[in-house]
Amino acid sequence: MWFKYGNNTFHTNSNLKSPISTINKPMRAGYTFQNYHAGAETYGGTSGEKYVAYYNEEGSFTPFASDLSTDVYDDSKLYAEWEANKIHVTLDPNKGTGGTKEFWYIFDTKAYFTDEDLTQSLVKIEHPTRTGYTFEGYGDKVSYNHS
Length: 147
Description:
Blueprint: E1 2-3, E2 10-11, E3 31-38, E4 50-51, E5 54-55, E6 61-62, H1 68-71, E7 78-84, E8 86-90, E9 102-106, E10 112-113
Antiparallel strand pairs: 1-2, 3-4, 3-7, 5-6, 8-9, 9-10
């Protein structure tokens, strides 16, 4: 992406003849994009300063911070900032009783919680019981023995 210092129009090439009309939000499995931020290779601005630009899911544009074109004055690198997703898991006892019903965790960590606010650590998943059956674990298919 290129721009002329002091001009808030961004272009796809260095001759500044092709304005950018679409910027897609970057994707990363298990994470949500937060913004771009300045780093050591950014000329101008403040290290860690945040700049955002992408089209959101509703199709509306979230522009770069208005000062990007006056902060950054030379070839630079901005870094994507990511937040690990909070994931909710429901455990179906499959006609059994008792056991842990649900938990939450932060993607790519070993942090598990009993509450959505992520304040109560989950120490152990308790398994359900069912008369005449031995619990063998949870699966990802509905077709496990429902008899």
